């Protein structure tokens, strides 16, 4: 594996939700775990927002810049150790990833078009249940923050 095939250790987490506090979860094809939309930058200069928009489109088929939706940067960054089983995807000297958290408010549940190479199924669940079902602690914590975003104008 050469340097240009390594993942950049900067990713986004996008919590997709409705006014009823239903959260979209998608099941990873490789691990079988539930999560929100996540993904790494494609190149160093890609903005956090552009990464979020791209990942939402790739993983769900939703257009995050649709005027009916509201993409919000929650101004929260998590730095966590990359699981050893996945470190081969990153340069040899990389052990941690920085994750920027976004929310995508939808007016109601939307049809989802999964990327079959990445995810096998999706479901809409109440926010507290969604937090309980997430494999990633940072994903669960972000979902638990949802009530404060529901009360924002």
Describe the protein's architecture and organization.
With 153 residues, the protein is α+β, with helices and mostly antiparallel strands. 22% of the residues lie in helices and 33% in strands. The chain is built from four helices and seven strands. The chain has helices at residues 48-60, 127-133, 137-144, 146-150; strands at residues 10-17, 22-28, 34-35, 37-40, 70-81, 96-105, 119-126. The strands form two sheets. A four-stranded mixed beta sheet has the order 4-1-6-5, sandwiched between helices. Strands 3-2-7 form a three-stranded antiparallel beta sheet. Strand 2 and strand 3 form a beta hairpin. Helix 2 packs antiparallel against helix 3 (137-144). The model has no long low-confidence stretch (mean pLDDT 94).
Spatial arrangement of strands, main beta sheet: 4-1-6-5
Poorly predicted ranges: none
Going by helix content, strand content and strand pairing, the class is: alpha+beta
Strand share of the residues? 25-35%
Per DSSP E runs of 2 or more residues, the count of β-strands stands at 7
* Overall pLDDT level: 94
- The radius of gyration over CA amounts to 15 Å
Shape: globular
Fraction of residues in helix: 10-25%
The end-to-end span amounts to: 47 Å
Describe the main β-sheet briefly: 4 strands, mixed
The number of helical elements comes to 4
SSE pattern: EEEEHEEEHHH
Topology:
Elements: E1 10-17, E2 22-28, E3 34-35, E4 37-40, H1 48-60, E5 70-81, E6 96-105, E7 119-126, H2 127-133, H3 137-144, H4 146-150
Parallel strand pairs: 1-6
Antiparallel strand pairs: 1-4, 2-3, 2-7, 5-6
Helix pairs in contact: 2-3
């Amino acid at each position: 594996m050469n340097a240009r095939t390594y993942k950049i250790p900067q990713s986004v987490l996008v919590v997709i939700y409705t006014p009823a506090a239903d959260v979209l979860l998608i099941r990873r094809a490789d691990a079988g775990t539930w999560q929100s939309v996540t993904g790494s930058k494609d190149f160093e200069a890609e903005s956090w927002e552009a990464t979020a928009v791209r990942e939402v489109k790739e993983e769900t088929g939703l257009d995050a810049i649709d005027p009916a939706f509201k993409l919000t940067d929650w101004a929260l960054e998590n730095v966590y150790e990359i699981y050893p089983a996945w470190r081969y995807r990153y340069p040899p000297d990389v052990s941690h990833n920085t994750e920027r958290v976004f929310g995508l408010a939808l007016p109601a549940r939307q049809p989802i078009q999964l990327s079959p190479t990445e995810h096998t199924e999706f479901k809409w669940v109440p926010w507290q249940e969604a937090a309980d079902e997430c494999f990633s602690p940072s994903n669960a914590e972000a979902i638990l923050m949802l009530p404060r975003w529901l009360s924002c104008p």
